[in-house]
Task: structure prediction
Amino acid sequence: MPSEDTKILLRESELPQRWYNINPDLPAPLAPPIHPGTGKPIGPEDLAPIFPMELIKQEVSMDPWIEIPDDVLRVYKLWRPSPLYRARRLEKHLGTPARIYYKYEGVSPAGSHKPNTAVAQAYYNQQEGVTRIATETGAGQWGSALSFACALFDIECMVYMVKISYEQKPYRRMLMETWGAKCIPSPSDTTNAGRQILAKDPNSPGSLGIAISEAVEDAATHEGTKYSLGSVLNHVLLHQTVVGLEAKEQLKLAGETADAVIGCVGGGSNFAGMAFPFVKDKLSGKDIDIIAVEPKSCPTLTAGEFRYDFGDTAQLTPLLKMYTLGHTFVPEPIHAGGLRYHGMAPLMSLLVNQKVIEARAYHQLSTFEAALTWARTEGIVPAPETAHALRATTDEALKCKETGEEKCLLVNFSGHGFFDMSAYERYLGGQLEDHEYSKEAVAAALKGLPQVAEPG
Ligand SMILES: Cc1ncc(COP(=O)(O)O)c(C=O)c1O
Result:
């Protein structure tokens, strides 16, 4: 029998003590990152200039469980375990027999799931004597999460923020500066990568691919500085699994098992964090739908190709085997800035390719429509990124209404939208539009991909 509770809470003492590493459980081996110069798999020494060694070890670890350090757990306790809510009012509004649960990651100080890895990354950097970290941010959620984490571990933080978001979300920048970080719009004239883009297109709205190039270059050219990525890489997805591990315990307390797990995908971290502990069950035979939701204007999983590509525009990163739209593709300036990324986490890409995870894409107007319905029934105003997951969850619930199925739906409510009011203002004012992505631009970007002989 499902519980009568609306809010399912764990005690601090029930916080997971280990992260779940899906790598050893994968249905096929993960293709290694390739050095663009040699065409060979990269080794730890290639990554050491920009990442601390402990994170490099986690990147390739085959241990199924990795201990969460006490210092990280102590910071997690500022907001974790996060609540799991039953969306009773939404269910009633939709008239669905489905039971909808959402894991609310907006309770973190920065307002999203991003601090789950930011805190871990700041901790490992501090342990290895790093005094400054450079990073990129799309909508500003990752930049603010890392600014917060760096403040706690006494590390300087330099954030390259995608220009269109810098302009759309000025208060995210203030938040970063409040935590002591420096934030500049990308492309900027402070790096070679930024200057090259500006020379070609002085009005470039920026993209995550460009901002990553600037942050990597910054880290490689400044003493005592490392680079930090807020998504995509294995260790980032690993740190996020605390979300799904908690959710599983909370569903158990509620007397439920999930029939579907849903999340939005930019680089894949919040989705993986929620879904991977359930993917483990699916791989051992459980019938469960795992649904990743992306924007139609940046349809990496639904229209991209699964092949080796650079993680950034200026080709500074190793080559990753992933779904990609091409590293030079600049997505339309939709408001879900955190979903405007040309690539996808290699772990996510493999699982989509293996048909363990299903991918869907939505236009932004339909996601805002779902966001408003949630805000007006459940109260919490979602981030535009999260709204994509809520659209798919709403659609699943409406499908249950048609079929009469009493499914248990679990969604990762990855962040609140309190800093996204300009997007809501435009939506409510009827000024927001859907953006069709340019098939020609994607085809051109894919043409520019390096030819890589697959190892092995
Ligand atoms: C609230 C929120 N959800 C989702 C995402 C997408 O990132 P990821 O796919 O790494 O979870 C972002 C990225 O900025 C975000 O801010």
Q: What stands out?
A: The pocket of pyridoxal-5'-phosphate is lined by residues 112, 138-139, 141-142, 231, 264-271, 338-339, 383, 385-386, 414-415 (CB under 6 Å). The longest helix spans residues 234-253. Residues 144 and 176 are 5 Å apart (CA to CA). The first strand starts at residue 7 and ends at 8.
